[in-house]
Amino acid sequence: MNDFLLEIEKYLDNDMSLEEKETFEAEVNSNPALAEELKLQQDMRLVYEDEQWIEGDKQILKNKEAKSLKSFFKSKEAAFLKTSIEEVVIENRSRNKSFYFIGVAASITILIIISLFVFKGNGNDKLYTQYIQIDDIPSLITRGEDNNGLIKKAQLLFENKKYNEAIEVFTQYQNETQSINSLSYIYTGIAYLELDEFDKAMYQFELLSRSNTLHAKKANWYMAMVYLKQNNKQQLQMILQSIISNKSSFKYKEAQELFEQIN
């Protein structure tokens, strides 16, 4: 078995000469145990080699869920888990084949559970897209008035989904302007939210809530959007309950609908 594993590793790592590869493949075709072990090691690599199976398809990386999954697999928690799993598999391999397969099955099961955990935000992403309604936000640019040049630039960048650049201009506007248009807090907060920078988004909506303007009452709804995209169900439930406790609240009906959908 140990010789098998060494040969398999060389084969999968493409460390064999052409002659060695042909000899190995001939052995695989005539040795069911070796063929079975090769298939198993290939399957295991599909689980562990996140760089290959995620980065191998560049289209997948455009998907937010794939980015989240890749981020998890690069984390310290994932590295520790994979190391622990490998130790269990190695230990079981030294005993007998049945225990080895149990270890492998457990490994794959755990990683599938992790994947489902990471992917569970998919439903909330759809709800977020449904309820954020970016196109419904009032324009910062008022016709017939002398608008701040930074505001025009920032809104154009935002509308073109250049969120990082928009944030830079909005930040400059907020730092340099004495009488700030409170809608800028909404735009900046959503820009941060689209980039999954939740704390910074929340800070903008907190500024909105303290702005003493007519738009201040919208802050709770946008905070709810942060919790929604963040998959923070407990906080989302609490703030939605706060919204629906008053029929005059901004997005009262939408808050009712969303509350029902998450429960």
Summary?
The protein is mostly helical and 263 residues long. The protein has 15 helices and no strands. Helix content is 73%, strand content 0%.
Low-confidence stretches: 50-62
Shape: elongated
Strand content: under 5%
Q: Output the CATH topology of the largest domain.
A: Serine Threonine Protein Phosphatase 5, Tetratricopeptide repeat
Q: Whole-number average pLDDT?
A: 79
User: By CATH's scheme, which homologous superfamily of the largest domain applies?
Assistant: Tetratricopeptide repeat domain
How helical, in percent, are the residues? over 70%
Any idea how many domains? 2
By CATH reckoning, the class of the largest domain would read Mainly Alpha
Task: Describe the SSE topology.
Layout: H1 2-12, H2 18-30, H3 32-48, H4 50-55, H5 64-73, H6 76-93, H7 97-119, H8 122-132, H9 149-159, H10 163-176, H11 183-194, H12 198-209, H13 219-229, H14 233-244, H15 252-262
Report on this model:
The chain is mostly helical and 263 residues long. The protein has two domains: 2-119, no CATH class; 125-262, Tetratricopeptide repeat domain (Serine Threonine Protein Phosphatase 5, Tetratricopeptide repeat, Alpha Horseshoe). 73% of the residues lie in helices and 0% in strands. It has 15 helices and no strands. The protein has helices spanning 2-12, 18-30, 32-48, 50-55, 64-73, 76-93, 97-119, 122-132, 149-159, 163-176, 183-194, 198-209, 219-229, 233-244, 252-262. The longest helix has 23 residues, at 97-119. The two termini are 52 Å apart. The model is unreliable at 50-62 (pLDDT under 50).
